[in-house]
Amino acid sequence: MAASIGMSDCCLSGKIAEGSPKGREEELCGISTYVAQPESGSNAMTIIFLTDIFGWKLNNVRLLADNYAKAGFYCYVPDVHQGDSLPEELLQDIEPPLPTREKLSLLAKGTKTAKVGATLGPWLIKHRESVAKPIIDGFIRTVRMIPGTDKVGTIGFCWGGRYAILTAQGGKYSPGNGVDAAYACHPSLLAVPGDIEQVTKPLSIALGTKDSLIGEKEQGKIQVALGKLTSVPHELQLYEDQVHGFVLRGDFTSEKDKKAMDDAEKQGIKWFQKYLV
Question: CA dihedral defined by 80, 70, 254, 20, rounded to 10 degrees?
C-alpha cells in the first residue's frame, strides 16, 4: 500500500528573504509569470518553478530563480494558483524555527495543528491535483512552443515538489510535451511508492532530516522506491537538521541553515547542468 505524505504547520513556516528580484513579470499561457533570464538571453535550458503554497510572488522563490538564471538557465515562476496563494504573513504566525518548535508544549502543538487544518484544508481542496495538474501541464506545453526552447526542467517546493515529480512521469505525456528532468525539494502530499515508481525522467530530491512530514521511515520508503528506478538517473540528498521548507524558506541568519540552502541550490543547478544540456 502506498504511503501518503501530508502537509502540516511546517508548510507554513520559514523566513522571508531580503533582496530585490532582477527579473520581470509577464503573462504566459494566460498565467501571470515571473521571468528571470540568463545574461546570454538564451532559453535553450529552461526551468519552470513550481512554488509552495505561498506562490509566485514570494520574494524567496524569485530570488532563487534569479540565482538559477545567473547559472545559465531561463527561469519561469508561473502563478499556478491563479491569484489564490496563501498570504506570506502566515510564515510568522504558524510555526517558529526548529529550536523553538522542539520546546513547544503538547497544547501549543495541538493549537497549531488545529489552525493549520482550518487554513490548509479548504485551500488544498480548491487546488487539488485534478485542478492544478492541467494548469501546470498546459504551462509546460506553452513553454515548449517558445522559439529557442530546447530542454525543459521543473523544480518544485513542498506543494509544488510533488508536481515536479509528477512531471517526471514521462510516460503520461505525448512526445515533446513533458520535461527532461526534475528536482523536488521536500515534496508534500507525495504518494510513496506510487508517485515515484512511474518516474521515467531524471529526478533529484532534497529532504531535511528533521522534516516533520517526511520522517525517517518515509525517507527510507522513498530511497527504496528510487532504488527500483534502475534505468532512470536519480538521487536523494539528505540535509542534516533541516526542516520542511528549508530549501526555499530556511533560516538564512543561521550559518548551518544558510549552508544547507546554498548546498541544495547547488544540487539543483548541477542536476540541470547535467540533464538539460
Answer: -70
Give the per-residue SS3 of 69-87: HHCCCEEEEECCCCCCCCC
- Give tens-digit pLDDT for 138-193: 999 999 999 999 999 999 999 999 999 999 998 888 887 899 999 999 999 999 99
DSSP annotation of 221 reads: H
* Per-residue pLDDT tens digits for 211-270: 988 889 999 999 999 999 999 999 999 999 999 899 998 888 899 999 999 999 999 999
* Residue 59 C-beta-side C-alpha neighbours within 13 Å: 12
Contacts of residue 238, defined as CB under 8 A and 6 or more positions apart, other chains included, come to 207, 208, 209, 219
Q: Which residue has the cell 488544498?
A: 124
| Length of the chain counted residue by residue | 277
Q: Greatest CA separation found in the chain?
A: 56
DSSP assignment of 14-34 equals --PPPS----EEEEETTEEEE
CA 74, 23, 25, 251 dihedral sign is positive
Query: Do 247 and 205 meet the contact criterion of CB atoms below 8 Å apart?
Result: no
Q: Which residue has the cell 505525448?
A: 174
Q: Is the pLDDT of residue 105 over 70?
A: no
Residue among 188, 247, 163, 164 at smallest CA distance from 3: 188
Alpha helices by DSSP H, the chain: 59-70, 90-94, 98-101, 106-126, 129-144, 159-167, 194-197, 216-227, 246-249, 255-275
Sign of CA dihedral 236, 240, 245, 248: negative
Nearest to 160 by CA among 242, 248, 90: 248
Cis peptide leading into 193, omega within 30 of 0? Answer: yes
